[in-house]
Amino acid sequence: MTIALTGLRGSGKTKLGEILAKELGLKFYDLDQEIEKKIKTTVKDLVEKKGWDFFRKTENEVLTKHIEKINKKKKLTILSLGGGTIIQKNNAKLLKKNCLIIYLQDTPENCTKKITESNENHTQNTRPALTSQKTLLEEMKELYKTRHEIYKENSDIIIKRSFDAEKDVGKIIKKILAFNS
To answer: How far apart are CA 122 and CA 7, in angstroms?
Structure first.
């Protein structure tokens, strides 16, 4: 089984997923990284060259193969999803059937701050634009408005994010234990 983390870009899916996997002694996967291994380029380059539709098709193929592989191994793993993965109905159905889905709920303002800080720590922005909004904050507000309910309705557990990753991982572990009892 897979514990899948969903939420807006910048909500901490990868960071918390890595910490959670370490705490629980599990294998961690990042769906975007798995996609990049398959396509041998960045998600940003793929989207710029072939468009979002092609990316979403590739994302579904990689997600489907990943879940099939994990189910065969019968291992518990942690998977960080892309922010738009679960908004695709075919992905949501696949995830709900095979995963415990945790929504890392965060505000557009906090996500914008975290993305900006992350971009400052890297030499280039590796994330493609998701909307036609002029600023990152406007984009994050639009995404929150269109995705929040989808995240909620497809999730088994909702964690309201703080700025303390360790504390949030503790909350996740408690909720997982309560969910399974």
So the answer is: 22
Please report whether residue 162 resides in a domain: yes
Residue 180: CB atoms within 10 A of its CB come to 7
Global pTM? 0.91
- Convert the pLDDT of each residue in 132-176 to its tens digit: 667 889 989 999 999 999 999 999 999 999 989 999 999 999 999
Half-sphere exposure of residue 128, counting CA atoms within 13 Å on the CB side? 17
Quick check: helix, strand or coil at residue 30? strand
**In this structure, are residues 150 and 86 in contact, taking their beta carbons and an 8 Å threshold?**
yes
Domain holding 72, by residue range, is 2-173
178 belongs to a structural domain: no
Contacts with 81 (C-beta within 8 Å, 6 or more apart), sequence order: 4, 5, 6, 13, 31, 63, 95
Up-side HSE of residue 160: CA atoms within 13 Å toward CB? Answer: 1
